[in-house]
Amino acid sequence: MKTLKSYRFDEGTSHRALAPSGEAGGCRTREGNWSRRDFLKTASAATLSALAAGYPRAILAAEAEEKIKPTADTLIVLWLAGGVAHTETFDPKRYTPFERGMKSAEMFSTFPTIDTAVDHIKFTAGLEKIAGVTDRGTLIRSYTAGDLGFILHSRHQYQWHTGYAPPQTVAAPHLGAIIARTLGPKNPAVPAFINIGQRFDLGEGEELKAFTTAGFLGSEYGPFNIPFPEQAADAVRPPAGMSPSRFENRDKFYRKLLAQSPVGEFGSDYQKESLLRSLDNAHRLLSSPAATAFDLTREPVEHIRKYWPDYQAGKRFDAAIDRSGSYEASTIGRFGLGCLLARRLAEVGARYIEVTTEYIPFLNWDTHEHGHEKMENLKKSIDAPVSQLVLDLEERGLLDRTLIVLASEFSRDALIEGKPDKKVKDQVEVPDVVTDMKNYGMHRHFTDAGCVLLFGGGIKKGYLHGRTADERPFKTIENRVVIEDLHASLFRAVGIPPRLSYEIEKRPFYVTRDGEGKPILDLFS
């Protein structure tokens, strides 16, 4: 007979437990250094609890029975995984051009400042197109990540996406899964939660699975994953030459395999039924007209080029892993196709869509070296698609009811790891004097500031929230924003009270940390 120990839990879940409260950042903390092994051990334990979870009954606290009028029906998260330096993007400081022999302490912003469509908001060079649509949205400059000890990207990404800091003891659902479960699909044929751009078979894939899940809510609310947007159409149609009868036989065989899986053998009746419902939902999509939305070849080439100016039909984004900066240059366009796919899916009724630049350790926004050089190409990856997504939704009359959120897990700095008053172990060697372009840029993880861009969905236009210091340390000094309040604001936009909870293991699991999230009303028009 199989035992639970004989299985490898690739579906991944996340977890919740009691822990002492943190200070700045307002989030659960745990002292000490955490390794990837620690993270995976706790994630696996939480997976076991998810298998046994019964029907998660929704509970709304009596004092929170206020009826919220939603300002958005769809949420699109544009996830810049890896840590985006605020001083290099949306919160410029004094421009310090490269000079051989310059001091690292003199590096403030390695890009000059540019104007935006809003007089009192400035960006850095390379973001001219997003600057042009700033008058359609709000910029938060004071997002502050939690104090989680030694910095692991996957732990901070877990916290951003679930609202809880690991370790946890039950499988905490992803933000998208909560929205899918609470609001249901807009279109029954379209997955309510779609995740675009992230692979789970490289780097820290197992850790990313730990939060890219519906957790105890059940498989039917989990993400429909599309690693490569240019291949999205392949995900919603049978392989070439597959006859209906052969496809049906495969489906029957697959269901038999599921009966022998951890969920099939050890899961509660609810979890088994939820898994089967997820299969039924997939079948419904295959035969629906909405499936055509996944096919980017149906989009006019001239419009694709608005998202990816150097569009090359048939290009495969399978560049070799290389930390010198060549990877970022060769993958320009992938995020743009993801944003275009997000627009098409929003049009046919997807409820929650996340598009990521993809987290791979030491690549993309995880700039441990070659920061300035990589940033030039990373800006090319996001500038056109983000602005065009805003303009397309506006032109189609969808922006008012679609909330776009652009965010990252934390920021970066040339000198400080963590927060100025809560420094943690350095992970990047930074020389006192810069003699090589490799060391020019922001390479350490900085958690005391960060930018979030919001467009549409009832959000104010041309509004700036929060402020950071103009001299190092470039920390938050006004209107600090923490994850539970950011989540409460996003939930309020789609009509979900921050005190809503789901009963699991005979106790409430709140959609914001312990139900303490407070929506930031200043963000709303």
Instruction: Round the Cα radius of gyration to an integer and report it.
Output: 22 Å
N-to-C terminal Cα separation, in Å? 60 Å
What would you call the shape?
A: globular
Strand content: 5-15%
> Low-confidence stretches at least 5 residues in length (pLDDT < 50)?
1-32
- The number of distinct β-strands equals 21
Corresponding CATH superfamily? Alkaline Phosphatase, subunit A
Count of separate DSSP helical elements: 13
Architecture per CATH nomenclature, i.e. the level-2 architecture? 3-Layer(aba) Sandwich
- Please tell me the total number of domains: 1
The biggest sheet, with number of strands, parallel, antiparallel or mixed sense and barrel status, is: 8 strands, mixed
| Arithmetic mean of pLDDT | 88
Assign the structural class, choosing from mainly alpha, mainly beta, alpha/beta, alpha+beta, or little secondary structure. alpha/beta
The largest sheet has its strands arranged as 8-7-9-2-10-16-6-17
Question: What's the CATH first level?
Answer: Alpha Beta
CATH fold call: Alkaline Phosphatase, subunit A
Helix fraction by DSSP (H/I, runs of at least 4): 25-40%
Explained architecture:
- The protein has a single domain (about 5-525), classed as Alkaline Phosphatase, subunit A (3-Layer(aba) Sandwich).
- It is built from 13 helices and 21 strands.
- It has helices at about 35-50, 130, 155-160, 175-185, 205-210, 245-260, 260-265, 270-285, 300-305, 325-330, 335-345, 370-395, 485-495, and strands spanning about 60, 75-80, 100-105, 115, 120-125, 135-140, 195, 225, 350-355, 400-405, 410-415, 420, 420-425, 435, 445, 450-455, 465, 465-470, 475-480, 500-505, 505-510.
- A hairpin with a 2-residue loop joins strand 20 and strand 21 (about 505-510).
- The longest helix is centred in the last third of the chain and has 25 residues, at about 370-395.
